[in-house]
Design brief:
The protein is mostly beta strands. It has helices spanning 10-22, 26-31, 35-42, and strands at residues 50-53, 59-64, 69-74, 80-84, 90-94, 104-106, 111-115, 121-126, 132-137, 145-150, 154-159, 164-169, 183-186, 188-189, 199-204, 211-215, 220-224, 230-233, 244-250, 253-258, 263-269, 276-282, 294-296, 299-303, 317-323. The chain has one domain: TolB, C-terminal domain (Neuraminidase, 6 Propeller). 8% of the residues lie in helices and 41% in strands. The strands form 6 sheets. It has a 5-stranded mixed β-sheet with strand order 14-18-17-16-15, with no helix packed on it.
Length: 325
Amino acid sequence: MTRRLRSSGAAIAVVAVLATVLAMPAGAARTAGSGSATTAANRPDLFPTTISLPNGFLPEGIAIGLLPYAFFGSRADGDIYRVNLVTGNGTVFSQGPGTPSLGLKVDLLARLFVAGGPAGDARVVNAVTGRVLASYKFANAPTFINDVVLTGNAAWFTDSQNAFLYKLPFGKFGKLPSQDQVVKVPLGGEWSQTPGFNANGIARTPDGKALLVIQSSTGTLFRVNPGSGVATRVDLGGEALPNGDGLLLSGRTLFVVQNQLNTVAVVRLNAAGTSGEVTQRVTDPRFDVPTTVAAFGNRLYLPNARFNTPPTPDTTYTAVAIPRP
């Protein structure tokens, strides 16, 4: 029997709200009752649409939780930068390990899951304090732990250089696993490794029963059985998604960031995620090789990785917000 990859229950949701409120900087908490703050919180269309990130930061991943705070990971040293979406102001609240922080996701317990790229690892960071709660080793070089999705009962990570997914199964009340509980799931079925980057962005299917993985090198979207790792191509009516990177599922709509094309493809899926249709492709003149996407309110937020710009300590970086298609 296929189990639905569903979220945890109401008790966790209550804890989540408390945790995210605690994540608010003191100033924001004090002003939350003011008329201007309340108006801004109810009107995300008033938030800044371009967010400045630190010079030389080399952004890659983004995560947004229940409150208007975005988290960005650095390819340079793994620092995590937290931004107030209402003001656009931010700070490095968690120092990196000196290796990249790539794909990010934040859960209902205010825990930030971080993919470690060529270090072959991942870590879980307290989204309130920045403290590292746990670290995991998945693979040795060559490896590239690229992205992560949360399914309620596990965190799943992709490896762009190896045909495996890595699973962190959660225990009771969302307890994090130990290192020896990490599950290594080989990709099979119609999956075939090719030169270049392979498994990249990852999401759930709309019905929550399987995973969706984009293969960057071929532009192919796959549906993956989480128990067996068997992958089947999603029927997109002959459409491909070249340079596919980060994925974001909203209902039955899948947003696929096509990084070098400076484009977000909008895919309407069936419930099982076995087929879909590319309904539109969205671009913006401010895009400069966006890598992935997160949502808040009626907006999508994308970090500009600027892969085609030689990085220096003074290179500028931004994240941009666009209307949700």
